[in-house]
Amino acid sequence: MTAIDLGLRQVVVESDTPILHVCFIESGLASMVAVSSDDEAVEVGHIGREGLGGHHVLLMTDRTPNRTFMQVAGTGIAVPVEHFMTIINNHKPTRDLLLRYVHSASLQLAHSALANARYSMQERLARWLLMCHDRLEGDNLALTHEFLGMMLGVRRAGVTNELHILEGIHAIRSTRGNVRIIDREKLKKIAGGCYGLPEAEYERLIGIPMSVAHRAIRIA
């Protein structure tokens, strides 16, 4: 195990490349992105300190077409794949726990597809902000409008308009390169059914809440 710094935009998993380490995220936020053959990209998953980058190795594959990189800088713990797989193959409780995490990550992906197909831009944005807030300490999310647009698969101008609406109801405060969460409950109300089920499934399977804030409350 090696403690590492994870800089902004640092690649955790490169597409179509065998990985040498899995990375347990300790702080910061990583995005898993699906990239098409003509370089269209959209986010399909978040990874914070609830999970790890490179979990595809648990499914006995050494590479994935998806790419994972840091969208908020942080820290992590790198474990060589050969040592990681020795533990997985020889310690059933660890293997079972991490496979339950893979299930919860797959469910998050499924609900991203559901949100993209059935929910409005405002609902999807509220969901995305809640997912970021779950994984980061504090209420400030170091995110630009351009980055939000890329992750949601929409134009920057569309994101800016929706952020202004959320500001108008005092759910957030948006400044250059930062979104501050003011009222989480308002965001949850806006997100409606496109947020919450994967988070509840994570808590059921792993035994702790997805939200960093809720974890702190439970520990206290």
UniProtKB/TrEMBL annotation:
Cross-referenced InterPro entries: cNMP-bd_dom_sf (IPR018490), HTH_CRP (IPR012318), RmlC-like_jellyroll (IPR014710), WH_DNA-bd_sf (IPR036390)
Keyword ATP-binding: no
Keywords: DNA-binding, Transcription, Transcription regulation
Protein name per its UniProtKB record: CRP-like cAMP-binding protein
Annotated HTH crp-type domain residues: 123-190
Gene3D superfamilies for this protein: Jelly Rolls (2.60.120.10)
Residues spanning the signal sequence: none
Any Pfam family matching the protein: HTH_Crp_2
Organism: Rhizobium mongolense
